[in-house]
Amino acid sequence: MNFKTFRIAGMIALASLALSFTAWANCSNASLSGTYGFLHDSTDTAGAPATAAITQITFDPNTGTFTGLTTASHGGVIVTSSVNGTYTIASDCTGTGTPAGATPFSIVVTSNGFLALHAFAEGFAIKQGSPACTNAPVVGSFAFETTGIFLAGAPATGWASFIGKLKLTVGPSGEGVISGHVAASVGDTAPSFVPVTGSYSVAPDCNGTATITPKGQSPLNFSFVVVDCAKEMLAIETDANTIVSGTLQRIDLPSCNDEQLSEAVTQAVEPRDAFRKSHTPLLRTLERADDPNHS
Question: Do the domain assignments include residue 295?
Fold first, then answer.
């Protein structure tokens, strides 16, 4: 499965979710409000990757405007640039975004973000969720997936895919530490899992960087945006001569903030405890009935 086919399959799945959402939703500019992580890419006319990018984008429904910061690989050259423009969302949850000095792109609002389509380009966005970030909330086990292409000048050349399970922890000095296993397929090489080490850092605005080093191989460097209350990260490789992007998705219990997590646990436990208290005589009778030594 090549890069374009993989992205289209993902977009079809996301589009089905968007259509189920829009079937009952009544949208407006207010449906896109606040900050989102936006992963998008483009291909050439032959379907080969031309650009991979992540944008942290903020929408203001009061003015119908957006601003953002994009990190992108254009043909293997990594650049960072600001973006701004206007947007409109119709009641059926479709809309248009118009970057300053560029052509418009089409939007469909989803329950937690949006899908976007431009000529030879597509992408999806997820709401940030957390107003501020540090390394501390971005911990746990994450599934890791990226796809794209390595160009001449990279350690290897050809279609590139990576998959793995990474564990993110915080060291005694607050530094982000990465461990785990990653399998890579570049060109015609067959993937096999190898141990990895690495480090990561998350800024207060929820942008971050990471370095992942597979055993015996060159380091892989990434920029990412934390989204969905630290349950996911949208990432782009920032090594020269690479056009690679993907996601890290939380595997274990998601962590928003202590207050939200505590509330969720309380809501789950209180009904169970209330049931046990009100049905204690019945439960004891059932326990005695199940006890073969009881007569």
Answer: no
